[in-house]
Amino acid sequence: MEYSKLFTPGKIGNVEIKNRIVMAPMCMGFGQYNGCATEKMMDYYEERAKGGVGLIFTEITRVNDVTGASSFGQLGMSHDYQIPALREMARRVHKHGCKIMVELHHPGRQNLGLMIGTVPLCVVGDKIMGNLYTKILTGAVIPPGKRLQEKDIVPRVVAPSKCERSKMSNSVNRGLSNKGVKKIICQFIEGAVRVKKAGCDGVELHASHGYLIQQFLSPNTNKRTDEYGGSLENRMRFLMEIIDGIRKNCGSDFPIVVRLTVDEMYD
Question: Residue 48 — very low, low, confident or very high, per pLDDT cuts 50/70/90?
């Protein structure tokens, strides 16, 4: 079988990719509480670049630490201090002729109530206590926390509007205020600006698998009565305002990929 197109260059906007081999996003858990890329994460992506991949999409990268952190080991673009490590990771990928784009993400109702507000505390605890904090967290905090999660004695996760629980997390959710919606839109935009400052080649907005952006698109999880709910145009407004903001702040030549699926993660 001939693969005449597979090894030919392609373009996304003005970004030329050496071939059509793309590594899809996949959370590896190689990060740390503060969201900075680690040596292990850099090594992992660099090895894929060495192997001949034309374009790498990073794993889910949070833009919000309080309601949007879904893993203790995920990448973050919620603070400027995370830029230098991402810049180094991009440099290591680029030296093998590979491009790298960052997948920006907020889980919305898919998150665990146990995770709400936990990451900022973990960042502080890790700074003060180092490895001792990790031992305390895994031994004395997480097991009781899981039991509280099972009894719904944890903060509520966020969604466009109060709706059925996600089959993934089974967490009780609450609807975002209008101000809260606009704040998260700004956080996505600010995350993209940091990605560009780090020298990466574009961003991917995670609007699939029932995560927050897709929750706004779906009439099943978006029952809002303001400008972000109701008609298809209104339900798309959350995503479109993120895209427009990134265009305004990162330039029209900065690639924006939107990841969409038909699976909204229902039972």
Answer: very high
**Catalytic-role residue among 45, 133, 211, 228:** 211
Amino acid at 254: F
Whether 259 contacts 103, CB under 8 Å: yes
Whether 211 is a known active-site residue: answer yes
Contact between 154 and 115 under an 8 Å Cβ cutoff? The reply is no
E-assigned strand segments in the chain:
10-12, 15-17, 22-23, 55-62, 75-76, 99-105, 157-159, 173-175, 203-207, 256-260
Show the tokens assigned to 165.
């629980």
Q: Are strands 55-62 and 99-105 parallel, antiparallel or unpaired?
A: parallel
CB contact at 8 A, 35 and 77: yes
Q: How far apart are CA 145 and CA 143, in angstroms?
A: 5
Residue that is written with structure tokens 């990929």 in the block: 257
**How far apart, in whole angstroms, are the C-alpha atoms of residue 85 and residue 40?**
12
- CA-CA distance, 21 to 232, in Å (whole number)? 34
Tens of pLDDT, residues 204-240: 999 999 999 999 999 999 999 999 999 999 999 999 9
Check whether 131 has a pLDDT greater than 80.
no
pLDDT given at position 256: 98
Neighbours of 262 (CB within 10 A): 6
Identify the CA nearest to 154 among candidates 122, 125, 116.
Answer: 116
Q: Is 0.90 surpassed by the pTM of this model?
A: yes
